[in-house]
Amino acid sequence: MSGYTSTTDADRAAMLAAIGVDSVEELFDGVPAEVRMDRPLDLPDGLTEAEVYGRMRELASRNADAESEICFLGAGMYDHYVPAIVDAITSRSEFLTPYTPYQPEISQGGLQVMFEFQTAMTELTGLPLSSAGLYEGPSTVAAAAYLAIGATKRRGLVVSQGLHPDSRETVRTYAAGFPADVTEVPLVDGVTDADALAAAIGEDTAAVFVQYPSFVGGVEDLERLAAIVHDAGALLVASCDPIALGILRTPGECGVDIAVGEGQPLGNRLDFGGPSFGFFCATEEQIRRMPGRIAGETTDVDGRRGFVLALQTREQHIRREKATHNICTAQALNALGGIIYLSWLGARGMVELGELLVRRTAYAKGRLAAIDGVELLHDAPVVREFAITFDADVEGVLEHCASRGIAAGVPLDLEYGNGLLIAITEQRTKEHIDLLADALAEAVGAAAAGNGAGGSAEAAVAGGVS
Amino acid sequence: MSSAPPTSAAIETPMQRDRATTIFERSVEGRRAAAIPAAGVPQEETPIEELIPAGLLRSQPARLPEISEPEIVRHYNRISRRNFDLDSGIYPLGSCTMKHNPRLNERVAALPGHARLHPAQHPARAQGALELMWSLERALSEICGLPHVSLQPSAGSHGELAGLLLTRAFHAAHGEEEQRTQVLTPDTAHGTNPASVTMAGYEVVKVATNEEGGVDLDDLRAKADERTACLMLTNPNTLGLFDGNIAEITGIVREAGGTLYYDGANLNAIMGHSRPGDMGFDIVHVNLHKSFSQPHGGGGPGSGPIAVSERIEPFLPIPRIERVEPSNGGPPRFELRGSAEHPGSIGRLRGFQGNFGVFVRSYAYILSLGGNGLAEASETAVLNANYLLARMREGRAGKYLPVAFDRRPMHEFVLSGTGAKKELGVKTLDIAKRLLDHGMHPPTVYFPLLVDEALMVEPTETEARESLDRLADAFESILAEAEEDPEILRNAPYTTPVRRLDEVKATRQPVVRQPLTD
Amino acid sequence: MAEASYPEDLRYHPEHDWARVDGEEATFGITWYAQDSLGDVVFFDPPEVGATVTKDEPYTEVESVKAVSDVIAPLSGEITAVNEAADTNPELINTDPYGEGWMVKVKLSDPSELDSLLDSAAYRDLLD
Predict the structure, then answer these.
(1) Containing domain of residue B433, as a range?
(2) ipTM metric
(3) Which strand ranges, in their side-by-side order, compose the sheet holding B182-186?
(4) Residue of chain A nearest C63, judged by CA positions
């Protein structure tokens, strides 16, 4: 008997007697022999708690995490400090262990969290509606594509190259089913090429997708893009970095119809990519097409304030094949981390954090651009992320930096250039940036001298895996 | 607790007296929790407009709460108590598998090597994570009886969408994409099934249920043809019944040229006893948040890995994990592979590698139980459901809440509240609401749709016998109460933080955010 | 309205819809039974004027908090008017299903279809 069940032999005997069968085996009689397993599962025997901990600790030790390296990796997920209160509150049984709030009378905590989360996200995006949370970033972009196709009855999707490659790929994967056609427009100097965009939009364009700031860090002029997109009767979707929304003009103010994004930067762990949450905000016009759960305020029979799942007829459990989306999950626990983090930062902290990032990123940009052989990919304004290019082999540069205890950046896809995407958080100090600059100068300089930073490859791997 | 008077408006519990206040309403100008460090760079004093043009900046800060740390902790601690949770009592929600969430899993997920590992870390420096994912893939492959696995889908419904896009790619590769436009689903299916079908660009064709609660074979034969892209099925189905005709069912659809999709929502009934692959399925999604103990978190996160047959494998989402044996006999390496190595792939379904934190918890769970432990978990889940059903056949529950489709269930069963509705004038909803006053979560109600006034009960293996007895006793006492005075049920609950809520108002005049003032 | 009623001057479709026929014009709505089973109606999406409706086929949807229901056309024709008031105040469908809660007015294309509909007594028999 595993420690996760409570059934003793005596319990089992009494229960079988109550059922009126002789053995547990008999309860499986409805499973025909032809589909019964005739052997045990080929998996190891169960381990004790301490043994499992040891095994998992050993696996974890073979990862170079942001605690053991100086991490400049970004591309949608960032090494922000997660305050201790996030762990303390999200690990409470009352938040950790319930299901979706189908019984609102005993789920007021979770429903209120959703309501607060929705409020905070509408504040950040400047749009009046917010879902309670979707899976994560790129699939939320695809959810916006599905909404746009339903809303406009058109079949064309235009994606900027400034949209994260994962998001573009996800939209393409989903589009095979909708179905929809996906066309791409290039960047010019780090932001979407407005002329190419205007040329790419047609009367069958349902929506245009950009990222704010762009994948390579450039801050888009959303208002200008919105005018072009709306002229053609299409919707503008912006996939946003929620931290950058603390200081940038809101998508709502710029005329964006749907603002989505990856929520990890808001109080969620890196977790090698998930779980986190996606956010989805839109104009009032889309209220009946929103994907996912939405909490709404109401009163109980005695007039007390309370919260319920609102507008449920949009959802799969009621509308079935006509639902606005198939999603059932709200990433409620991750969204709770998000609203705690935003409360912890507060109105002023949000702005201070954004400004800190802008200043440190400006410093980092200047510092790296000054290195011989390193160029900035673009000159567009940036908040917390930017891209550099160089001639040296990217793998070699990364390995050299890893040997100095630095995760230098995310390799750029070749469509952008040979180089790295570099992200700054409040955990990356001036000293860290200086160390990165030194390591990059060595790696790029060595490569330029024909020495090849790859020479230190093996040492780098060994050194990186602490 | 259970005998609160029907008119309790005047007698408020302390929790009820404590009216809901949002974090925004607790905001007091000037308070704060976080301290943001100085930039510490030469640009410290540079006006921000010199770094980003003023036209691109916010005109006013986001109106987030201004609140101190102790006030945040009090706020969320206070509202957490307005939730019922699995650690407080039985939570027999049918089809949701509310089993115990081992705390070891939380501990190992929080190790910095997992929690602070960046998803774009170079694979050479994330070998532990990739090995963990590969090992979990192998374990799920063995449990499902299918050779290949992708962990990428974020939840069950995401796995369904993946499975249907795989189906589309499979038929396209055989020149039959245009022809195969229909997906067969039984009328007992979860709502996500038909919703996923539409998102994947297919048409839903419903297959009838026979008198035994299984797939109506004649109806299936009539509907499976050259237009069939796929059959989506749960077995045991949403009635908790194992369909003994399963080999014939999958044979009919395979013969017609369709793929076979297994919704793994009910996998907890059969782990180590029967495998979807052996039943003839091509694609299975596994809800790690159901059978594999990931906490439900109040509605997420989850994870919905898919296991597939050889014929579906070429189309699996990327990136995929490959175990590479070095020629020099050294330890194996784990690599991420993309479209270069897998040109037939449907592509990505989301960012990065999936919900890794969930993989850690579920892998820890599988290590803890082992193969035999998983089989035993399913046995106990089935034992518990059958025992609870035996108890529910007694007394008033047996009289007013007869079991729908009277066969031996697996891990869950469905009762019909038609008797209670006709003879006592109380609906299933009223009974469910009265259970709240007993400190128990009600079963799933009004699902599956083909059972009138349905109550779908899944106790899971982690409930102790006495906990099942208490639930059966609560039903008995509630039905006895209804015989005396059905009004008590119609007005329940009485003791919860709020009582019945006006859902009509919430939908006719939706208030879905807090109105804020400057 | 609290009490079930099935006016004698209407014709009924077995899918719980009614038609009030006046020459070649007819008004459609849902029956007392339909609105009662649905519960409080929260949304009615009026179709377009000029759209064609076909007997036995859905022409719009009504929603309660937890259900969506297709509304079936009892007769065929072209929509000449829709009840905008029920769009704004969907509760009219509950409070006055045969009056202010009407849904569409239709110019009939085949008045002979009327013969296949039920009268009040036959519809009540169906409900029992």
Answers:
(1) 372-504
(2) 0.97
(3) B148-150, B306-308, B283-285, B259-263, B228-233, B182-186, B203-207
(4) A313
